[in-house]
Amino acid sequence: MPGKAKEGSDKVPVLKAEEAVLKYLKKVMNRPFGAVDVCANLKGAVPKTATQKILAGLADKGEITQKGYGKTTFFVAKQSDLEDVPADKIATIEAELKTIEEENKFLAESVKKATTELNKLKSTPTDEELEQQLEDAKAAVEKTLEYLAPLRAGTSSFLTDEEIAQSDSDWIKWRTEWVKRRKIFNKYVPLSWNGNRVLWLLISDTLPPPQANELAEDLGIEYDTTEHSEIEKSPLCATAPSKRR
């Protein structure tokens, strides 16, 4: 006669242990398990040794499938015994899946909009920052007014010929230096494996973007803007200093 489970014990009676193991494997259907996994997932209701014997016995009777991988043996419910899902149930599941996907899509859009709004709020100056910006603007206005005061009063003095000559000399000197540096920056370097590459790109492409930006900042590199291009096309650069007077 089968032994009775002790009062208060969580162990499954011997006759029901096999039923519990088989029921569990059919419940998880397509997942293979070892004896240790089954024992653990049954919360130890069936001892490990008994679980191994029960699984082997069920496999011998053809109620489950047994597969060996090296020294490890796995057990899985027979796929041929699995119940076919009716077409109407499949349609219902697909409809539910579509509904959930639509809900997820809507939620994703909501999260995206909320994130955009949050980023806008984070980039908005605080009251303290606005006050500081206002103070800076007032200081800039006052400084500009100081420069304009002599012009408005008619007390400003014109540049002397020597000062104009010095200004032209400085202009030629520093513009020439700038042109040289720009040529170096935009210089094409012949590469045997990839044609020609701009020197700066050849250097910066080997670095992560943050390091490339940091290097550019350390070297004092400033990219030409539309304003630079317009100045280069203007009479200021097209005419010699002596002819601009």
TrEMBL record:
Q: Which GO terms describe its biological process?
A: homologous chromosome pairing at meiosis; meiotic joint molecule formation; meiotic strand invasion involved in reciprocal meiotic recombination
- Coiled-coil stretches, from where to where? 90-147
GO molecular-function term, one example from the UniProt record? recombinase activator activity
CC terms in the record's Gene Ontology section: condensed nuclear chromosome; DNA recombinase auxiliary factor complex
Subcellular compartments: Nucleus
User: Where is region (Disordered) located?
Assistant: 224-245
| Domain spans labelled Homologous-pairing protein 2 winged helix | 17-77
One matching Pfam family: WHD_TBPIP
Which keywords fit this entry according to its UniProt record? Coiled coil, DNA recombination, Meiosis, Nucleus
Q: Does the keyword 4Fe-4S apply?
A: no
Q: Which InterPro entries match?
A: Hop2_WH_dom (IPR010776), WH-like_DNA-bd_sf (IPR036388)
Q: Superkingdom of this entry's organism? A: Eukaryota
Question: What family classification does the UniProt entry report for this protein?
Answer: Belongs to the HOP2 family.
Q: What protein am I looking at?
A: TBPIP-domain-containing protein
